[in-house]
Amino acid sequence: MSDLANVYQLFRSKFEDNDFQYYYPPSYIRSLTECDDKIIFAFRKVQNHILSSEMDAVRPKQSPNSNGSASLDLTGSPLRDVSFEQFEEMNLSKEYHESSVQNLWTVDEETYAPLSTEKARSLLQAFISLECRIGRGSIWVLCCGTDSEQKVLLQLSVNAASNNQRQFTRGVVRFSGVQPSNSITLGQLIDIHRQRAGEGMKFSPKIQIQQWCKLHAQITLRLSWNTMGEGSTFAIERNARVRLSQEFPVNNGAFSRSSPAEYFWQQLQRLAMMRERIMDIRANRESGYARNDVCGEAEMDLEYIKQKVNNILSSFLEVEPVTYNSSTIIDMVSLVQKRKLTDVMERLYDALTLCSSYEDLKAAIDYIFHLSTHSNIVNVPTNGTRFAQLILAMIQDRLAIPLLTGSEPYELLLECGFSKLMNDYRTIFTEAGIYELEFEKLFQPQVTNTRKSRYATGNGPQLDTHHGAPSKRSATQLFQSAAGEERVREKSILLSNFDEDEVKLRLNRLAQVHLLLEHLLLLESAVNVPSIYGRVCELYLSRAPYSYGEVYNRRTDLLEFELDEFMLLRKADHVLPCARRVTMSSANMLQKLETVFYQNAKPILPGRFYPQFECKELDSKHEFWCYEYDRIESL
Questions:
Q1: Strand 202-203 and strand 166-180: pairing?
Q2: What secondary structure letter does DSSP report for 547?
Q3: 183-208: pLDDT as tens digits
Q4: What subcellular locations does the record give (predicted)?
Q5: Contact status, residue 140 vs residue 155, Cβ threshold 8 Å
Q6: Which of 196, 475, 597, 615 has most Cβ atoms within 10 angstroms of its Cβ?
């Protein structure tokens, strides 16, 4: 654990010519050390000249007399506003953005320029000489690699003991060149390590090997195993531990446009928009009553919707048993999307979402209530939503026709929408044999929060029975009370019982379930090992979900887990490794030397700062950028 806050302040005051940050390590240090503890990192801050030049290229030019107004002038020629040269530069900018995604470093790390090796060494030596109370952790300095050993990083680990005697562990990272992957042997690496350890240290025969393989552009396998003896090779052992990492490209919410499950994400978007409408109406904002944008492109006039509602409630529907004979997830997604709706409330929800305005929605629901009271209803709703309870109570002459006001039409519709979408997801996961979704557990709040929004509760008395101990009622009963109180509430079913926090939790969880479905679709297309799907669901749903809005601020969503699966090992046998990490050590009574050989098919350091490392053309089609990390510790 790192505790270097005081050391960081000391560095900033004593060595003002350099830049320091006390934060989690850059990507290349994490790759070498596999440690996420905070470090002090010394470098030279520079501007990302590529990005800044791109911004200058696309920044609109103003005349000397321009006052910087945000108003638009639509009289100019678009051909004069952006020249051909600027257009080409904008295309180059796009190409740079696409290529930067493939880099192993981040955009911020493009601004961390190295120090000279001599300056880095003198900085660490000056710190050792200081008389001060220090913490514990690691200090890293980025070096330019122009010395004879091509050092790119220097490390000093500090440890303050209780008696103030300071112990230091030193580390150095060297770039050892670009080599064909098939020319690197474990025996060569052992010889390099032994040469550095010298005769006075005893070599430990236990060698740790980690190897990464790309099964897909977004799917990586990490295989880890220990080997003994100097005659070992890089052949994957059958007892290797497997860790799968999948980065699903969320692309700030744009993923749905090319997804087979786009329909279900659109349903979730519709529910989120309904929630916003309810919040607007409760806050007395006119936007809550604006033209309906929750129905999508298929809006219809009120008379058509009334006729559709009348047919749903008054006409017999021939129901045939549904059998899903699909062996793949993607086929199941398509079948559920195209399934014939048989539940009365799902059919009513499907009809009501065609309303083009708040007034039409209110009128359509009022029409349903009048039909329930005065007509011969053939199809009686059976699910547990409040909307269904209201219709059933009116059919049985237990309730007068209610008058909907404010956000109540959207509240009733929102509850039905949640019920339908949950049923869709549950059917996909169950019928595909993946996992049994338990929304009752998923919708339980993880942290009790007593603070409520001023718009979180309804106009009538609020019932908290659904916040108590878990009951046997369905998870679709979003706002209703426990079953034991039904007789008391037969003639007073609440029209408005909206809980903002509860709705937000459901949106977040359903967004998580949808991202899980997207992960499974990607796994099926690239890996197709059904035996791992249940484990994936269990691990992914055990995490705290992102907020629904946060999905639109993310570039990727990471799924990472360890598993024992022989089929994945067999897939890795036929794929060339994209990275490798080999760790070995030697020790005597006084010191221990640990060497990490890290090899990657791509450079891990920004190439703009290390032009001398540019790769020359090799005969091999598969080469490794090789780095050696020595760490010597006093015992």
A1: unpaired
A2: P
A3: 899 999 999 999 999 988 999 989 99
A4: Chromosome, Centromere, Kinetochore
A5: yes
A6: 597
